[in-house]
Amino acid sequence: MMNVIFAGIILFSFVFAALTGRMPQLSEAAMGQAGEAVTLVLSLTGMLCLWSGLMKIAQESGLTELLSRLLAPVTKRLFKGLRPNGEAVNAITMNLIANFLGLGNAATPLGIRAMCEMAKEQRADGAATNDMAMFVVVNTASIQLIPATTAMLRMQAGSAAPLDILPATWIASVGSVAVGIVMAGLLAPLWRKRP
Amino acid sequence: MTAVGVWMVPLAIAGIVGFGLLRGVKVFDLFVEGAKEGLTTAVNILPALVALVVAVGMFKASGGLDLLSFALEPIGKLLGLPREVIPLSLIRPISGSGAMAIFNDILRSHGPDSLAGRIASVMMGSTETTFYTIAVYYGAAGIKNTRHTIPAALSADISGFFLSALAVKLLFY
Questions:
Q1: What's the rounded Cα separation, in Å, for the pair A172 and A161?
Q2: How far apart are CA A45 and CA B43, in angstroms?
Q3: pLDDT digit string (tens) for A50-70?
Q4: Which among A188, A170, A70 has a CA at the least distance from the CA of B126?
């Protein structure tokens, strides 16, 4: 799937740039953006180290286990194939909490960790498991208490009440995560584990 | 609100370190050990991210976004999305910084408290950069066969856009 999307975007861009005469911009973007990706990873690396380090402390001190037990009713139902209270579920719990609190910069490193732990526990071997797909869906639906960045941009643009969108945001995220969970369950049998 | 955002990160860091101290674990040693793992993960992400960032950058530079927005207007109408927010719904799943730029543009040119401004705000708050997340997460875990991940995540995104428009119309107008 990723192969098709990658090739599709690049070929579409090439043809369209050729038709509209935007080849100089395209060429510049292709070369400049590769460096941009490295900058992006570098800026992510600091956060990744910070939150991986903090995760280690939380793990050894028993904080993650405490929080996992709190969220167990949710994680047990969503991630049926994972050991309850295993490393993977612990990392998932921390990621969900970080997401919910709007700690976007922390949520990504924790999510990456959760994904690696899942790959280890379920011996994924290059193919996504049902639990991994479920985790992506829950993550990308972005359930958060206060979308701080969005609210800040609204305030800067001179909104009379930057936070008046909150109820609508909650409805939209809860609804979309529900659709995602149902779809992940329905679509899973259509893709075999080992093609 | 912004005060809450400012407090959150320091509070989480202090909370974790404080809890560790209370339980008598070696907080500094553990932190360094964990941070080292973070470094390895960063290296694993880079290749997939280069692919995605270059592809998205080329797409934006080619002007394809405008064409696609125009072509998708009928579908957007079906979902109840005003014309102004369609480019945002296209770029949102693939680029976080791109979405931010378009979002800001909508806020400036239509006003944050207009219909388009509000729908765009709710869309930003209730969806994520799906492809970026998939590339980063699966890149780190060495997953090549994504199976049903993309269709499931995209259907969540599309329903998120639809619900954003619906919720704003119901709650404000």
A1: 19
A2: 9
A3: 888 998 899 899 998 898 999
A4: A170
Nearest neighbour of A112 by CB, restricted to B32, B41, B63: B41
> Do residues A115 and B141 make contact, with C-beta atoms less than 8 angstroms apart?
yes
Q: For residue A142, how many C-alpha atoms fall within 13 Å in the half-sphere facing its CB?
A: 28
Residues of chain A contacting B30 with CB distance shorter than 8 Å: 53, 56-57, 60
CB spacing of A128 vs B150 below 8 angstroms? no
pTM equals: 0.85
d(CA B24, CA B91): 47
Closest C-alpha to A59, from B23, B114, B59, B134: B23
The Cα–Cα gap between A155 and B121 comes to 11
In this prediction, residues B65-78 reach a mean pLDDT of 88
Whole-complex ipTM: 0.85
Residues from chain A contacting residue B64 (CB–CB below 8 Å):
12-13, 16
Q: How many CB pairs (< 8 A) connect A and B?
A: 368
**Which residues between 17 and 76 in chain B have a beta carbon less than 8 angstroms from any beta carbon of chain A?**
17, 19-20, 22-23, 25, 27, 30-39, 41-42, 45-46, 49-64, 67
Residue with tokens 């930057």: A162
